């Protein structure tokens, strides 16, 4: 700092005598004063609190700087006012740099401010806090304003200094994770111009048309970034001050493109951090937030592909297995046909056999029935056999009876009984003999003839005719009736029916009863 | 020109020779495609879709996977520096800031 030189009243002559003191006009004195002050204080820095701040219509700024014991008028011409890094306001503790001058018209002196800086950390922090509150009250920092970052941006816009470590860190980290198209909007990140440039860069990226060919700036259109990174390396509070400026904060809040702030180190907080959608502690961290790790994504993608293929494969094999299972339960068409064909064959075969078998069956039944049917001849023959049988037994019976009587008779002629009874018995014996003779006579076939039967003999040879059928028409027969009456006859007809004149000895009309009665006689 | 070189170095997603992807898939971001792929995989894994639907899902899943793969293959670092012309027009020129 330039020490103010001791005021030396150069223009005024040394006071010799009061009479020698030259008489000066007010203007002369004022001019002299002005020269003296401006020469002596052409470059000073003065610290004080701003009060009575006022922006004139002309664009000049007027204020007073003060401390506890003194005040100093201050002015900032319009040309300078726009470049001030600190926006003056009442109560702000500032260090003003400039020159002193006087205002002769009002007998005042003042400082003409060239630049303004905030005085002291505490004052800065207070300003920061006040500003933060004011902007927060506007809603610029609301959580609801935050937008999610794109998962995988195609184009990344970076607002930072094109030189230095920050951009290199960001590019390296991007390349490691997922190389992308990066647009760098070069700005100064410190000093009075920084805030304006940063704000313009943010707005400039937002002004790019969406859908500009990504990576195709050769055609002219610059692609609009999908995400912005506003970055600056570490530094003092004053170094980072541009990122606390309202214009920057407002630009960040207004950005339609999601924005990551990465200003200073982790412990440094600037107001842009509040307005950004995400705050990164370092520029490298901002790059990490901006893009995922490519190899991880490839891994994820491969995993999904594996699952996709596996799932659809499993789906198909499961269905194939189910189909196979069902098919097993489904009989083969050939088998169905085979069984049906077999049944058909069987049926056809049985159909073919059924008719002859039925006929055979009927024939057998007929045969059996017919077999049981007797012809009249058979019936007659049967009767004849029975009659002959009866006749034979009759004859035997008669002989036996005669024999028995003979024996009895013989018995009675034996021994003494014979002698004793001989006399008396002769007569009785004669009677008995007589009776036996009568009995014998009664048992002769002649007696049968007396009951109406007849004996038929062939006329030519005298043989007995037992079977009427054996006779032929025209044959001559001899018929013996009772009491030895014999008559001759001729056979007519064929032997069937009853047309014959002959009357066989064993006529069918009555034989069974007769035979039985005859048997009973003995 | 360096600019022209940068342009030809670009990978065109449709140069793979495979069947072109449906418009809706090509318009998808990587994340959208991944999300749909995941949804398809999960549905297929549950195995409740009909066979026809499963096959359809699978082919869409395969397309999504191809799209994602293309997006991952596109990973090429390119750095350009913005220049603002005197008339306010913005252009970008390849820059080597490393």
TrEMBL record, chain A:
Q: Name one GO molecular function term.
A: nucleic acid binding
Q: What is its EC number?
A: 3.1.11.6
Q: Which domain of life is it from?
A: Bacteria
Q: Where is the composition biased (Pro residues)?
A: 1-16
Q: Which UniProt keywords apply?
A: Cytoplasm, Exonuclease, Hydrolase, Nuclease
Q: What class of enzyme is it?
A: hydrolase
Protein name, UniProt field: Exodeoxyribonuclease 7 large subunit
**Upper lineage:** Bacteria, Pseudomonadati, Pseudomonadota, Alphaproteobacteria, Rhodospirillales
Q: Which gene encodes it?
A: xseA
UniProtKB/TrEMBL annotation, chain B:
Q: Where is this region: Disordered?
A: 1-21
Q: Which InterPro entries match?
A: Exonuc_VII_S, Exonuc_VII_ssu_sf
> Which Gene Ontology BP terms does the record give?
DNA catabolic process
Cellular component terms per the entry's GO annotation:
cytosol; exodeoxyribonuclease VII complex
| Predominant location | cytoplasm
Q: Where is this protein localized, as stated in its record?
A: Cytoplasm
Q: Any idea of its EC number?
A: 3.1.11.6
The reactions it catalyses are: Exonucleolytic cleavage in either 5'- to 3'- or 3'- to 5'-direction to yield nucleoside 5'-phosphates
Asked if Cytoplasm is a keyword of the record, the answer is yes
Q: Which domain of life is it from?
A: Bacteria
Q: What class of enzyme is it?
A: hydrolase
Which Pfam family is an annotated match for this chain, by its short name?
Exonuc_VII_S
> A GO molecular-function term, please?
exodeoxyribonuclease VII activity
Keywords of the record: Coiled coil, Cytoplasm, Exonuclease, Hydrolase, Nuclease
Q: What does this protein do?
A: Bidirectionally degrades single-stranded DNA into large acid-insoluble oligonucleotides, which are then degraded further into small acid-soluble oligonucleotides.
Oligomeric state and partners?
A: Heterooligomer composed of large and small subunits.
| NCBIfam families noted in UniProt | PRK00977.1-3 (NF002139), PRK00977.1-4 (NF002140), xseB (TIGR01280)
Q: Which PANTHER family match?
A: EXODEOXYRIBONUCLEASE 7 SMALL SUBUNIT
Q: What is this protein called?
A: Exodeoxyribonuclease 7 small subunit
What organism is the protein native to? Marivibrio halodurans
Gene for this chain: xseB
């Amino acid at each position: 700092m330039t020490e103010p030189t001791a005021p030396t009243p150069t223009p005024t002559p040394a006071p010799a005598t009061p009479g020698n003191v030259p008489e000066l006009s007010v203007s002369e004195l004022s001019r002299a004063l002005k020269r003296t002050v401006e020469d002596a204080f052409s470059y000073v820095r003065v610290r004080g609190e701003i009060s009575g701040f006022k922006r004139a219509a002309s664009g000049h700024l007027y204020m007073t700087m003060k401390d506890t014991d003194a005040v100093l008028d201050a002015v900032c011409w319009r040309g300078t006012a726009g470049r001030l890094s600190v926006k003056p306001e009442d109560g702000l503790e500032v260090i003003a740099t400039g020159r002193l001058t006087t205002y002769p018209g009002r007998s005042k002196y003042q400082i003409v401010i060239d630049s303004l800086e905030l005085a002291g950390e505490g004052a800065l922090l207070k300003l920061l806090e006040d500003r933060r509150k004011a902007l927060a009250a506007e809603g610029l920092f609301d959580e609801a304003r935050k937008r999610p970052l794109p998962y995988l941006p195609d184009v990344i816009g970076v607002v930072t200094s094109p030189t230095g470590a920050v951009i290199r860190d960001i590019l390296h980290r991007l390349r490691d994770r997922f190389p992308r198209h990066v647009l760098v909007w070069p700005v100064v990140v410190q000093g009075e111009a920084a805030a304006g440039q940063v704000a313009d860069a943010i707005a400039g990226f937002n002004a790019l048309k969406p859908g500009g060919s990504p990576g195709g700036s050769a055609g002219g259109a610059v692609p609009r970034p999908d995400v912005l990174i506003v970055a600056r390396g570490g530094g003092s509070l004053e170094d980072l001050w541009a990122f606390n400026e309202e214009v920057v904060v407002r630009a960040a809040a207004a950005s339609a493109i999601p924005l990551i702030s990465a200003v200073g180190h982790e412990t440094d907080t600037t107001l842009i951090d509040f307005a950004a959608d995400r705050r990164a502690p370092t520029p490298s961290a901002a790059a990490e937030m901006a893009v995922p790790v490519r190899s991880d994504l490839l891994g994820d993608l491969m995993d999904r592909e594996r699952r996709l293929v596996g799932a659809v494969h499993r789906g198909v094999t499961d269905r194939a297995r189910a189909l196979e299972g069902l098919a097993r339960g489904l009989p083969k068409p050939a088998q169905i046909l085979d069984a049906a064909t077999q049944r058909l064959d069987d049926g056809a075969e049985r159909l073919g056999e059924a008719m002859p078998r039925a006929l055979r069956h009927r024939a057998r039944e007929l045969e059996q029935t017919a077999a049981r049917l007797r012809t009249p001849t058979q019936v007659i023959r049967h009767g004849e056999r029975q009659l002959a049988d009866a006749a034979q037994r009759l004859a035997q019976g008669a002989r036996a009876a005669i024999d028995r009587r003979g024996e009895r008779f013989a018995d009675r002629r034996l021994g003494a009984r014979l002698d004793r009874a001989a006399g008396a018995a002769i007569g009785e014996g004669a009677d008995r003999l007589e009776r036996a003779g009568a009995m014998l006579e009664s048992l002769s076939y002649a007696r049968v003839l007396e009951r109406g039967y007849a004996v038929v003999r062939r006329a030519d040879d005298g043989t007995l005719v037992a079977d009427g059928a054996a006779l032929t028409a025209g044959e001559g027969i001899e018929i013996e009736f009772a009491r030895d009456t014999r008559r001759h006859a001729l056979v007519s007809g064929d032997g069937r029916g009853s047309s014959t004149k002959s009357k066989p000895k064993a006529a069918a009309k009555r034989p069974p009863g007769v035979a039985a009665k005859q048997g009973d006689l003995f | 020109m360096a600019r022209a070189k940068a342009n030809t170095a670009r990978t065109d997603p449709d140069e793979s020779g495979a069947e072109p992807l449906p418009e809706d898939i090509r318009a998808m971001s990587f994340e959208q495609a991944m999300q749909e792929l995941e949804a398809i995989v999960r549905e297929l894994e549950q195995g409740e879709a009909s066979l026809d639907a499963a096959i359809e899902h699978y082919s869409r899943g395969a397309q999504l996977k191809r799209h994602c793969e293309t997006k991952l293959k596109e990973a090429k670092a390119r750095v350009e520096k913005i220049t603002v012309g005197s008339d306010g027009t913005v252009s970008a020129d390849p820059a080597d800031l490393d």
